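## retry 2 of 3
previous attempt timed out at serialization; input unchanged, resubmitting
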Amino acid sequence: MRLSEYAKQNGIQYKTAWLHFRKGLIPNARQLPTGTIVIDAPTIARKAKTVIYARVSSSEQRDDLKRQAERCVQFANANGWQVEQVVTEIGSGLNDERRKLLGLLKDVTVTRLIVEHKDRLTRFGFNYIKVLCEHTDCMLVVINQVDTDEQDLIQDFISVITSFCARIYGRRRSRRKTEKLIEKLRNED
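## retry succeeded, writing output
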């Protein structure tokens, strides 16, 4: 942070902060070649926190969810990583509002996130999540790295079509319910 920010944060005038800098009273303070005085925040070592994320699309796959989580724990143990938390979730890989996944991505204490396949994390936008993890110093570990092949592309295509169909039919169903309610109210008058 700049010296002016340091002064505001500590409730002192800029000139006082400058005098403290000149006397060497501010730890981690240095002057850049441009003349700007900056104070480096002390680096705090983060404790390693390994988290496993497992997901399936439907509740009929609960047994698969348990086995997926167990395989991830075994992988972590084989690598000597102590698992702090196992997060399991049932929801579509296309759904970008999965509460548990969003909570994990917001948790800056997570230093290692393990998933079995990248599609267990998300169907689309995996690279965005990867960049976010890198930005927060969280190592994203995908156990089974599968290159995109024809079968993988077909599965992605089916997922997109299924998602769009569900949204369309959901709207129609909702519209029919609303129309029935309006008709019922008119008939009661």
